[in-house]
Amino acid sequence: MSLPSSPPNLQLNLQPNLQPIPVTIVTGFLGAGKTTLLRSLVQRRQARRLALLINEFGEATIDGDLVRATSGDAGGQVRIHDFSHGLIAYGDDEHFVPTMLALAARRAQVDHVLIETSGLALPTAVMESLQTPALAAHFILDATLAVVDTPLLLDNRFRRGSGADGAVADMFERQLEYADVVVLNKIDDLNEDLLLDAEHRVRACAPNVRFLELAYKAQLDIRLALGLRLHQPTLQAHQHTYTHVRMPGAEASVLSDQGRLNGHAHSGLGAHSHGVATHRHFHEQDPGWLSFTLRSQSPQPADKLRQAIAEAARSEPILRTKGFVRTLEGKRPQLVQGVRTRVTINTDAANENAETDKSELVFIGYHPSRSKVAALLSELTGTHWK
Ligand SMILES: Nc1nc2c(ncn2[C@@H]2O[C@H](COP(=O)(O)OP(=O)(O)OP(=O)(O)O)[C@@H](O)[C@H]2O)c(=O)[nH]1
Predict the structure, then answer these.
(1) Distance between CA atoms of 170 and 163, rounded to whole angstroms?
(2) Any ligand 1 atom below 6 A from CB of 28
(3) In which domain, by residue range, is 127 found?
(4) Which of 36, 63, 176, 362 to mutate to test the pocket of ligand 1 (most atoms within 8 A of CB)?
(5) In this model, does residue 297 exceed pLDDT 50?
(6) How many whole angstroms separate alpha carbon 25 and alpha carbon 53?
(7) Is residue 47 situated within a structural domain?
(8) Are residues 62 and 38 in the same domain?
(9) Which of 148, 332, 352, 360 is 20 to 30 A (C-alpha) from 167?
């Protein structure tokens, strides 16, 4: 991976003798709940000063705005950097290293860095970059968290198949393969048997995962997410090892007590190591994954639009939809969130003070047809989308 050299003024300010800044990577497939998890961690940050690097697939940056709205930050305690090209720290990303070095130069004001990879990127690119001498002097990987849409996992939506199914399974499995912690999310309606089933499925496809945590609405106790110290510095060796840690609840039998489900963690594995240098990861994006943006100037009938987006996800290989729309019902833009056919449209903290006339939606899928989706939305809403 070629790394751009840092500007001279940054190098002057760097102080490698300070403790390295811990970095947590949040990965997970499209729509799993990564941004929701970050928003909840930002809300529970207490005195921690956080820097967030947020990466999305698609031309519009929506996730960064959602987190900004949550932080409500006047004192600069939370700093957010948007990466909109989908592949943070991959070979042709010229922004990642300079952004990290700029954070290192402000080391005294940063307690923890959180990096959200896009739903179609692997965490290994960031892991590998953190091990280069330029960054290893200033940062240490704390842990890699993979967020899982548990109902979709139980519905076999990440099972290997042909075409889109194969591409989805490939990405899902590879993201989990390098995770230290798997967060089973969206468990609102799942009973203990289903949660055990989900745990077995995760263990089967990612046997190296150290901790499984359960999250309602992607809410995790901040002590189970940050400061885990699962990795050691690796300036010399191009390898990292896990230190042994004890987690609250580690000794408890798994899922034996529903009352302990929210945010409890348990470990099933001893220490192990793997070299990031040996990781196979895509430096090239699978060209089948596409995103496109559709816009409309007309106010939208919210319910019809919701049904139209769900219908588009049924008839085209659309896996994720998000954006802001102006509805007939209200002046404020409404946040649209679609994960496959599950679609919600509502007001969010990010849009409650904004006004807009236009509607803009980002669609992400595997070889989806832009024109078919535009035609479907136009037909089913009775408004023009293009
Ligand atoms: N029911 C339910 N919905 C959830 C939960 N966590 C997140 N969601 C919803 O799932 C949708 C996607 O959540 P995000 O946090 O945007 O997911 P993401 O992984 O950041 O998505 P991408 O960045 O597009 O890959 C949103 O509508 C969330 O409100 C949960 O625990 N339960």
Answers:
(1) 11
(2) yes
(3) 8-278
(4) 36
(5) yes
(6) 9
(7) yes
(8) yes
(9) 360
Atom of ligand 1 nearest to the CA of 217: 31
Domain count, the chain: 2
Ligand 1, residues 35, 187, 213: which to mutate, most atoms within 8 A of Cβ?
35
**Atom of ligand 1 at shortest range from CA of 38:** 15
**Helix H segments across the chain?**
8-13, 34-43, 63-71, 96-105, 124-130, 133-136, 150-154, 164-177, 192-205, 302-315, 370-381
Q: State the distance from the centre of ligand 1 to the C-alpha of 25, rounded, in angstroms.
A: 17
Q: Is residue 97 part of a domain?
A: yes
Structure confidence at residue 212 (pLDDT) = 94
Looking from the CA of residue 188, the nearest atom of ligand 1 is 32
Whether residue 218 has its Cβ less than 6 Å from ligand 1: yes
Q: Phi, psi at residue 103, to the nearest 5°?
A: -65, -40
Same domain membership, residue 187 and residue 92: yes
Higher pLDDT, 73 or 120: 120
**pLDDT, tens digit, for every residue of 113-171?**
999 999 999 999 999 999 999 999 999 999 999 999 999 999 999 998 877 788 999 99
| 149 Cβ inside 6 Å of ligand 1 | no
CATH number of residue 358's parent domain: 3.30.1220.10
Total Cβ atoms within 10 A of residue 170: 14
Cα pseudo-dihedral 35, 41, 44, 45, rounded to 10 = -120
> What pLDDT does 266 receive?
38
Q: What is the mean pLDDT of the chain?
A: 83
What pLDDT score does 15 carry?
Answer: 53
Domain assignment present for residue 283? The answer is no
CATH number of the structural domain spanning residue 78: 3.40.50.300
Would 300 be classed as within a structural domain? Answer: yes
Whether complex ipTM tops 0.85: yes
Which of 35-39, 270-274, 291-295, 375-379 shows the lowest mean pLDDT across its residues?
270-274
**Residue 354, pLDDT score:** 72
For residue 86 and ligand 1, the question of a CB distance below 6 A is answered with: no
Q: Looking at the structure, tell me whether residues 303 and 365 fall in a common domain.
A: yes
Q: Are 248 and 325 in a shared domain? A: no
Q: Are residues 246 and 358 in the same domain?
A: no
8-13 long-range CB contacts below 8 Å, 24 or more apart?
10/98, 10/101, 10/102, 10/104, 10/105, 11/101, 13/105
262 and 296 inside one domain:
no
Final residue before a domain boundary, out of 255, 278, 301: 278
